[in-house]
Amino acid sequence: MSFARLAASTPVHVAIGFAAMGGWAVWANAGHGMHAALLAGLVQGALSGALTLGLKRSVDWMRPRFAGLLAYLLPPIIAGGCSAMLLIIAHRLAGTPELLATIAVPLFVSLTYIFAYNSLRQCRAERMRNA
Fold first, then answer.
1. How many CA atoms lie within 13 A of 73 on its CB side?
2. DSSP state for residue 8 in the 8-state scheme
3. Global pTM?
4. For the segment 50-101, what is each residue's pLDDT rounded down to a tens digit?
5. Can you tell me whether residue 33 is helix, strand or coil?
6. CA quadruple 109, 27, 41, 58: dihedral, nearest 10
């Protein structure tokens, strides 16, 4: 498998999201004992994996429904807002002690990722239309 195909692979994106952001949540909550840290890591890892899949699919679905600048901005803004709500709700339900620290990095990373991913895909779609 080429690097380009591997980099575009949804399962790879999901696995990286799970491992990286779950690990961050464990670290962010380590001062509250192993149980709290591991629960936060599991919740965040599962959410990050699922949200990575959901973000990618949702912006791919939304992008063609907008034109011009809106196609670059609205899909990631809408998806990011929904992602933030889900993270807050899930971590509140799980009783994550360091809620803001736990979700700050994953939200920043996912918003950066989804804006970049959406912009690259939109540029590619525009190039193909104009070719």
1. 3
2. T
3. 0.83
4. 887 788 889 999 999 999 999 999 999 999 999 999 999 999 999 999 999 9
5. coil
6. 0
